[in-house]
Fold this protein.
Amino acid sequence: MHSPGSVRAVVVSDSKRGHENQSRVLALMLGDTDPVVLRIRAFGGEPALRLWLAVRGRRGLSQAAAARCVQRCLAPEDNIAFRSLAQEYRESRGSLRLIAVSSGTPAATFNLVAARLFNAPAVVNMTPSLLPRRWFDVNVVPEHDLREGAALPANVLATPLALGYYDEPHARLEAAELCRRYGLNPGGNYVALAVGGPSASSPWDDAFVIECLDRLLEDASRSGVRCLATTSRRTPRACAAHLAARHSAHGEPAYLLDAALDPANPLPAFYALARAVVVTADSFSMVCEAIHAGLHPVVLGTARQVGRGKLARALSKLETSGRITPIRRPEDVTGWREKGRRRSPPNEFYFSLRAQLLAKLGLDAPS
């Protein structure tokens, strides 16, 4: 049970981990470290519900109808959490403030339903297609989704990054455990290397990536710098195998996690240990995580870099604002460690956006 007068976030989730994680960051901004998560199942009536909301508005849906809709669409295991929240809300007699939160398009309609059910504000992260921004009390919108030079509506907050929060104390604990298990030096001179893979929004060239990785590792070795590397589930086997062969033959990278074999995420620990970071350009989330950790990532592009699409626009904006340094050719590797050094305290963007969000909702900053 939360304390009287407290705020609880109701996270409406489409069960996509990236979306849910960003919604949990919004909940943390609101002061709720343990939000109620309502995972919505696929529901064939969603277009009709959206049309109803378009015609009648959020308040055209009765609370009883909203309750039936939420219960029908909830994943079975979440019905207990839903009933518990409803009971807590009734017993609070108005002292508990609820705020509905979601990320992405699939959960956005049900965000509005949950908001109607509890007479709560609706906060949506990322621009939901097919749903007007004016339907939500606050929209957190990536800058690359906004028209250049256009005035922002009162209910829109722009952000250059995917939402994130770097939990520095927890990351330091993870870093200490990584050092203990693998004989790393907590005060060592390390660089973090995060290798992704091809995606629909980012071209990929194995030969180009491998050449850049070789140059990075060889330059690090000559300079007495050790690399901590991780692949992702999308990393082509040729790239992962090349890193593994270097790790076995030369001890560089000093530590390597193959994501195809181990589901662990060592990046928070890497960011606690590293003085610089290199990430591949296919993952906007990896780029943003590094920035949230206070680093200035060097972003390894591809030999066939394209200049269109949301990912390209987002990275271009970060480059223009001086938040990342791209590597588009193997020759650009020179001086990468200086370019990618730690430059700012962690979570600068998180705290700035939190202040704006709380102001929009008329809330005090959580203690």
In short: The chain has a mean pLDDT of 87. The radius of gyration is 22 Å.
